[in-house]
């Protein structure tokens, strides 16, 4: 029975990552930012989906149980703050490339999740990555309708964080003896996804 559950958990994780890669060519171009529905749908783009799920997995795997909320909360706070800066015209060079590289960053964080990286450093990296995502979206602010889009985007972001937490809990419960291997595999897959997304922008 345990072997069956373990196989299903691994398949679920693999399908989630492959699902993100399947739409990798459409990470940002061509989406709208003027309605609640567009906000709800947009985070399912591969760069955001993978990053937000990874934050949930990392938080459960590294932070103490009573502090696991800090990873997702940190991401969302930094996202909102940096989106506000983006609305005011603040930006950085190669912003979209940085967003793609953030997926690689989260992959690296999962690779070393079972080692001795201080949680504060991990949270700091989450702030940096979320800030790139926020600036990218803040700079896309339309003349009207952005409030609804922002609400939808944050709702889906929260759901994806919860999804990552659930995956992390499933790994800890059903793959306890192989937790490091599972996290390492997910980290490596995220790294490959980040390279692919970066390559799509550089092509």
Automatic annotation (TrEMBL):
Keyword Nucleotidyltransferase: no
Signal sequence bounds: 1-27
Keywords from the named record: Membrane, Signal, Transmembrane, Transmembrane helix
Highest taxon listed in the record's lineage: Bacteria
Organism this protein belongs to: Achromobacter veterisilvae
Membrane-crossing segments per the record: 43-63, 75-92, 145-169, 181-199
Keyword Protein biosynthesis in record: no
Protein name: HupE / UreJ protein
């Amino acid at each position: 029975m345990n072997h069956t559950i373990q196989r299903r958990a691994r398949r679920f994780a693999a399908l989630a990552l492959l699902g993100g890669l399947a739409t990798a060519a459409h990470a940002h171009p061509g989406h709208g930012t003027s309605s609640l529905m567009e906000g709800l749908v947009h985070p399912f783009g591969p760069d955001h989906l993978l990053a937000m799920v990874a934050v949930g997995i990392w938080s459960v795997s590294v932070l103490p149980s009573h502090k696991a909320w800090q990873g997702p909360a940190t991401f969302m706070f930094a996202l909102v703050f940096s989106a506000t800066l983006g609305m005011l015209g603040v930006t950085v060079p190669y912003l979209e490339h940085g967003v793609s590289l953030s997926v690689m960053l989260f992959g690296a964080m999962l690779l070393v999740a079972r080692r001795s990286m201080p949680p504060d450093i991990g949270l700091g990296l989450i702030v940096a990555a979320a800030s790139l995502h926020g600036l990218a979206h803040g700079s896309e602010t339309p003349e009207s309708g952005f409030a609804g889009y922002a609400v939808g985007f944050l709702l889906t972001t929260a759901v994806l964080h919860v999804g990552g937490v659930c995956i992390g809990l499933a790994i800890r419960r059903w793959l306890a003896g192989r937790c490091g291997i599972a996290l390492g595999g997910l980290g490596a897959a995220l790294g490959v996804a980040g390279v692919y997304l970066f390559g799509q922008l550089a092509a």
